[in-house]
DNA sequence: TAAAACATACTACCGGGTATGATGTTTCGG
DNA sequence: CCGAAACATCATACCCGGTAGTATGTTTTA
């Protein structure tokens, strides 16, 4: 039987779990179901990263789990739903890493630096997720047949906008407290995000990669965009 | 009849036309054929941008030309071949705009600034091409069944590497002449390219958009990455 | 007039989605 | 405490729409 009232977390917006505020451990049962879904999501992220959104088939995802399509379709209505779940998870990772840093009692320039560092780390640490969502967004929006899909996508895109707005906020604060010299806040934000998101394109995970390398990348990248290249 | 010895420019690597050094106007015949192909390539770029690589069907491309699949398949062996052509064209645009600027007799920092500006302009002016190729690259490489396809893709990727190397060259020169302060040249190059390529993600073409807006974007973006955000 | 440049009609196949069955696992009345 | 219904979780088998590619016919051009 199709699990109709399966945890609808990733199918529709649930107000009480915005950005991972999830109250876990209430019961053992839903937690396990959550884990099963999460496992699928992770497999999907890997497949999306390797083969792209369309080339990655549902069977691929299932194979990656040592399972069949039946399992995936039991937890997700459609392939789009799976992608949406990956997308939301990627954004949750970003928010959890960056948003707390905004409250620090520092000059805006220093806060921005730490936020940039954190964002870079998230890009590298959750690479499969971030690569997946970078591909098709408004593309998917055009392709989405059902209105429900488009609604979910709009919500996700708005989530992304909220996230990028965090950086613009700090940029504006830096303009105010004088620690930053920004003429065009939106454009500066685009430049910052662009330089960091570029990681998703060129960064490659190697098994023997020490943590220090990622630290160096995050630090150098953030320093470059903050201090510039000119001497 | 299938045009077997159709201008194989976009099917296989031809040594004599590296980076748009094409000697045009030799005969009238190939020039016209070239134009026909170019028209298809442009239509494909538009469709790839709108619907994504896979969702864009060959019929879509043909429809965009007011033609049918027959025309496309007469000039290109496969859908992959069309994508490869779009890819190469995109890179040619980049080379033509940026490479000449390297010879200018200026401090490296200033040359880099102009190169960045030029690159930004290319991103905006040839948006459909640039968006198309940003999607599937090594993704396509994995998906490519035939060895011939993979060979072409490797060549294209190497073309891209050569292009990005231009910026690293200037960065190294700036390190030498003291106009730039760069500790990690490759990383600095990634940051620069990333910030500029981000354009492809967020820039939207509007019909009433004055040229001055693109100029402002290119200038501000380049200035931001060169001079940094900190005051 | 022959070849190039298309259009038309058709096939083969892949992949998303579904219907159904098999196997645990929880729940609950007695 | 027990046994069966209800349910959750997956596997299997199948359908079917869409699309890349082909084979062939038709028109245009040099």
UniProtKB/TrEMBL annotation, chains A, B:
Keyword Cell division appears in the UniProt entry: no
Gene Ontology MF: a single term: transcription cis-regulatory region binding
Keyword terms of this UniProt record: DNA-binding, Transcription, Transcription regulation
SUPFAM superfamilies: Homeodomain-like (SSF46689), Tetracyclin repressor-like, C-terminal domain (SSF48498)
Pfam families: TetR_C_24 (PF17932), TetR_N (PF00440)
Domain HTH tetR-type, first and last residues per copy: 34-94
DNA-binding segment(s): 57-76
Keyword Protein biosynthesis attributed: no
Transmembrane segments: none
Protein name: Transcriptional regulator, TetR family
């Amino acid at each position: 039987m199709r699990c109709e009232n399966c945890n609808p977390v990733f199918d529709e917006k649930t107000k009480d779990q915005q950005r991972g505020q999830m109250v876990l451990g209430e019961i053992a049962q839903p937690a396990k179901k959550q884990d099963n879904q999460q496992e699928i999501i992770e497999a999907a992220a890997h497949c999306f990263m390797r083969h792209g959104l369309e080339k990655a088939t549902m069977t691929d995802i299932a194979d990656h789990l040592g399972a069949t399509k039946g399992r995936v379709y039991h937890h997700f209505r459609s392939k789009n739903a799976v992608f949406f779940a990956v997308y939301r998870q990627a954004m949750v990772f970003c928010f959890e890493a960056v948003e707390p840093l905004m409250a620090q009692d520092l000059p805006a320039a220093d806060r921005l630096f730490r936020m940039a560092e954190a964002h870079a780390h998230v890009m590298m640490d959750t690479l499969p997720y971030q690569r997946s969502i970078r591909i098709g967004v408004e593309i998917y929006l055009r392709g989405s047949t059902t209105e429900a899909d488009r609604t979910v996508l709009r919500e996700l895109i708005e989530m992304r906008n909220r996230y990028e707005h965090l950086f613009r906020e700090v940029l504006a604060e830096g303009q105010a407290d004088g620690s930053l010299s920004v003429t065009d806040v939106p454009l500066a934000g685009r430049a910052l995000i662009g330089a960091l998101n570029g990681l998703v394109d060129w960064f490659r995970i190697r098994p023997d990669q020490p943590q220090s390398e990622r630290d160096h990348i995050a630090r150098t990248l953030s320093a470059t965009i903050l201090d510039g290249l000119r001497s």
